[in-house]
Amino acid sequence: MIEPILVFGIPVDFILFALTLLGVALFHHHTLPVALTGLGTIIVYKLIFTGFKYGAGVGGLGHHMAHEWVTLANLFLLLMGFALLSRHFEESRIPDEMPALLPDDWKGGLALLCIVFVLSSFLDNIAAALIGGTVARHVFQGKVHIGYLAAIVAASNAGGSGSVVGDTTTTMMWIAGVSPLSVVEAYVAAIVAMLVFAVPASIQQHRYSPIQKDPPKGLKIDPARVFIVAAILVAALAANITANLRFPALLDTIPVLGLAVWAVILLTAGLRSPDWKVMPETFKGTIFLLALVTSASMMPVEKLPLASWQTALGLGFVSAVFDNIPLTALALKQGGYDWGYLAYAVGFGGSMIWFGSSAGVALSNMYPEAKSVGRWITQGWPVAVAYVIGFFVMLAVLGWHADVPLK
């Protein structure tokens, strides 16, 4: 790849990506065209001027996409598949029963966020966020505050940050040889952050639309749909653990997790038909995220600043606008991090903007009104505050213990 062209010391690639993100923030009713236009502009620029990481011209683009396709395919299959899972879960009537199980005041919203946090520690954070969003739609009678939606995403990302099976980035660390015990330290920051953002977000939601006190009469749970939901989640978890422990090479060649989810969806379609009507809108949201992830993967980020707690803190904010998967890969290659801090930063940091994590994009497909950077930041402000407080509490309690560079 040719050295990037600089304008005032900034690579043009980054300027184009920043303009794309600015366009998404300003024109939140037209996010897909903006993201696709940005991706197209970046590709044309790199074809003409700088080439790609793996070569110049169309051949370089082809090699680049061959390297990225598994990640993109997994995201596509998971976002589309978990949208169907959330509809199975909704039609099982379990969400309608939740008012009977949750406290009646603002603590009901807090309890729901805690459930999302726990689910995400062993499930994919997309699934945890969509389950939380589905329950919220029912217990708050369809009126969910954007600040509370941000809290659901934050709870799903926080819950996965300390578990090697809870998030793609922590799984990458596990594959690279980082001990699961090093990653679990992230829960020191994640639990503190959870307490900081969950309480004000729950009170905010209670004032906006209180929790429904009693479930509708005569509800009947659909056991077939409950079985389908459980089967999809178990398949995703089993595929993740089995592939990482027994067949790690497969993870670089086929989208194992996404295929496992879709295998169960299709095999159980005869038992209960999926709600295919959600696919068109979900497809648009999914392509939007894939456009941003592909754009981010083309940025000339070959080197990070020296590993330190300050760098780790900064990576959390970068993760809000920049895909955390390549950031994690670079950090693993560089080494020298305290991996619990990195897991927390790249896992939780994306919660600060709606498109900063796949969980946020998935939930915004369910709640289109959340696709506003301004409203997400102003109404979901406790999330950013929680990120910083959680990080510094972790630093005060555990200190920074840099690991040796990984081979």
Automatic annotation (TrEMBL):
<feature type="transmembrane region" description="Helical">
    <location>
        <begin position="32"/>
        <end position="49"/>
    </location>
</feature>
<feature type="transmembrane region" description="Helical">
    <location>
        <begin position="5"/>
        <end position="26"/>
    </location>
</feature>
<feature type="transmembrane region" description="Helical">
    <location>
        <begin position="249"/>
        <end position="271"/>
    </location>
</feature>
<feature type="transmembrane region" description="Helical">
    <location>
        <begin position="339"/>
        <end position="363"/>
    </location>
</feature>
<keyword id="KW-1133">Transmembrane helix</keyword>
<feature type="transmembrane region" description="Helical">
    <location>
        <begin position="186"/>
        <end position="203"/>
    </location>
</feature>
<feature type="transmembrane region" description="Helical">
    <location>
        <begin position="224"/>
        <end position="243"/>
    </location>
</feature>
<keyword id="KW-0472">Membrane</keyword>
<keyword id="KW-0812">Transmembrane</keyword>
<dbReference type="InterPro" id="IPR045016">
    <property type="entry name" value="NhaD-like"/>
</dbReference>
<feature type="transmembrane region" description="Helical">
    <location>
        <begin position="283"/>
        <end position="301"/>
    </location>
</feature>
<dbReference type="GO" id="GO:0006814">
    <property type="term" value="P:sodium ion transport"/>
</dbReference>
<feature type="transmembrane region" description="Helical">
    <location>
        <begin position="109"/>
        <end position="134"/>
    </location>
</feature>
<feature type="transmembrane region" description="Helical">
    <location>
        <begin position="313"/>
        <end position="332"/>
    </location>
</feature>
<dbReference type="GO" id="GO:0015297">
    <property type="term" value="F:antiporter activity"/>
</dbReference>
<feature type="transmembrane region" description="Helical">
    <location>
        <begin position="383"/>
        <end position="402"/>
    </location>
</feature>
<feature type="transmembrane region" description="Helical">
    <location>
        <begin position="146"/>
        <end position="166"/>
    </location>
</feature>
<protein>
    <submittedName>
        <fullName>Citrate transporter</fullName>
    </submittedName>
</protein>
<feature type="transmembrane region" description="Helical">
    <location>
        <begin position="69"/>
        <end position="89"/>
    </location>
</feature>
